[in-house]
Design brief:
single chain; alpha+beta; NADH Oxidase; four-stranded antiparallel beta sheet; binds flavin mononucleotide
Length: 232
């Protein structure tokens, strides 16, 4: 499924939700630090159980972002699969309908970028783009205290969602990246995130490349009847 990416700033929450998508090709145009600060500050109005506000944030841009991306690219030559995951990204036995959904989005994305599903190297190359933040000028890492559990991870999700929608309001796009959880050691080394924290994900933030085929990906959603039940 594909359709045209919307880059103009969203004027309502509904529009922000409808025009948000995971962007995997960014322009190098910079995003002012003041904009990132504003997004994070407003995003922190997210609800969290007990008002724990469990999110911890590290922002990389400019020379710091470039240096980190370069370091990881070097290390990837020795460790193509990263340093070991921070957590299990998916359940070991991913059942249906989740397995099919995961397969479908991957296939749709590879089709758009012209990668054959059996071409492991090309798939790995596409996956590898995660580690340059897909070209975005701003990379954000979200970490959380290891002691936290499912409720606090849900809080992180609300915070993340806010960042994505606030980005749309400013004409920007994002891609959440759990792929970065494969590089927790390097991220810790570079940012000073302590061992007691889990590196949950990265977020690429910037101006989407409107001409990139990969950004035309419009992922499917199950119809309402499939996930909601109403009784009255
Ligand atoms: C927490 C989280 C982590 C994600 N990690 C990655 C990632 O590492 N790489 C990637 O390309 N997309 C990643 N995604 C994007 C999902 O693949 C995407 O949200 C999903 O396919 C739905 O597509 P949409 O965001 O375009 O609506 C992540 C999304 C979330 C919410």
């Amino acid at each position: 499924m594909s359709d045209t990416l919307v880059t103009r700033p969203s004027r309502s929450v509904t529009e922000a939700i409808q025009t948000r998508r995971s962007v995997r090709d960014f322009l190098s145009d910079p995003v002012p630090e003041a904009t990132v600060r504003e997004i994070l500050e407003i995003a922190s109005r997210a609800a969290s159980g007990g008002n724990l506000q469990p999110w911890k944030v590290n922002v990389l841009s400019g020379a710091a972002r470039d240096e980190f991306v370069k370091t990881v690219a070097q290390r990837m030559k020795e460790m193509p699969f990263g340093e070991g995951p921070e957590y299990a990204i998916y359940p070991r036995d991913l059942g249906e309908p989740y397995r099919a959904r995961r397969g479908k989005v991957a296939m749709d994305m590879y089709a758009l970028v012209g990668v054959d599903r059996d071409d492991r190297e090309a798939r790995a190359r596409q996956m590898g783009l995660n580690f340059s933040f897909f070209g975005a000028p701003v990379g954000i890492f979200i970490s959380i205290d290891r002691a936290m559990g499912p409720p606090q991870y849900a809080d992180l999700g609300i915070f993340l969602g806010n960042i994505m929608l606030l980005a749309r309001e400013r004409g920007l796009h994002t891609c959440a990246q759990e792929a970065w959880s494969l590089w927790g050691k390097s991220i810790r080394e570079f940012t000073g995130i302590p061992e007691e924290d889990v590196v949950f994900c990265g977020i690429a933030l910037g101006h989407a490349n409107p001409d990139a085929p990969v950004n035309a990906l419009r992922t499917e959603r199950a119809p309402l009847e499939e996930f909601a039940t109403f009784r009255s």
